[in-house]
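G.,

No rush on this.
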Amino acid sequence: ISVTGVQTCALPIFRNVLAVVSLFFEVSSLEYLSLTTFILILYSMPIFVKIFAWIILKEEISLLDIIVILISSMGMLLIFNCSVSEESGIGMIYAMSGAITYALSCMITKKIRHVDSNSIYLSYVLVLFLISLLNYPDVIPTRHELGILFAMAVIHVAAFLLYLKGFFHLKTSRAAVLEY
């Protein structure tokens, strides 16, 4: 295999590993954090995308972008300061790690301009669902509930793949905000 072949194969694999690690951190943080704090931290991902797009992809960053990043960061710090005594530090670290690793996986996706097959994305969603069930051993979903969850996974994957089609046509930081 040539060096180019290794790079072509290694980057999508690394991107997928980052995405799985991100989801693991996000699901794990839910055990320690309130939903409000979790969402706040998770929604910080576009800030990291903007910074990483500037550093890694050499996308432009304007003065307005810098001001928005600073104001957003100060707001997050203020909220963290108010809730840090009530929330688990490990949960915050997990959620922040999830946001950062997901932002990095976005950079790789944009750089390689490669999208995996639908079945791979569906597998991610299903595997993560099964892993999250391990946190609740007393919960055994019925066939009907599993059917609904499977349908939700298919809809999620279809929506995500449509999102990715537009992702390659927009600046990375603009596309990251649209994901939410």
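When you get to it, here's the other one too:
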Amino acid sequence: RLPIRDEAGNEYTFVGFAAGAFQGNDYLGSIKLPDTLEYISNQAFWQARYLTEFAWPADMTNLQTVSYRILDTCSRLVGPVEWPAKFPNVAQAVWNCPRLVGFGGTCITNLGDSAFNNCSSLRTVEFGGTEPVTFGNCDFQGASALKIVLFHDNPPVPNQYITAVNASGGNPGNTVIDW
């Protein structure tokens, strides 16, 4: 709970997570990020194996930086995770989350390479907004349960490929891509 107080009673405002802040943590089960949050550094929750719920701040005014692979190898994260509109680049933020079932974002324009790698329970990904979405190399690789990729008003960038063509585990006709 905020504010944070030290032994002398001094108050501090929580503003961010350092790189690897909860790396390998086996005690963090859920997190609701505070409105005072300004940054989340690289791999802040990497291998937080018992993290099942992740909630962004209700007020995103202070949050300025979300680095790469913040939810890497959160093996019990179920979601769905709704990506904040303020950050159009997912930048490999979600990797190796085998129980994650859904992901969405209203203003995502760039997935970066290998987004959703080994998210083997991921069934639905939704993109909203109006800007085209750019995919990276090997996005959705190992997303064997993927059934639906929806583009509401923002189709993929013309003439690009979604490189993980076997996202559905090699079962022909198993994935719907709709825009």
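Confidence is low (pLDDT under 50) at residues 163-175. The chain has no helices and 14 strands.

Enjoy the weekend,
O.
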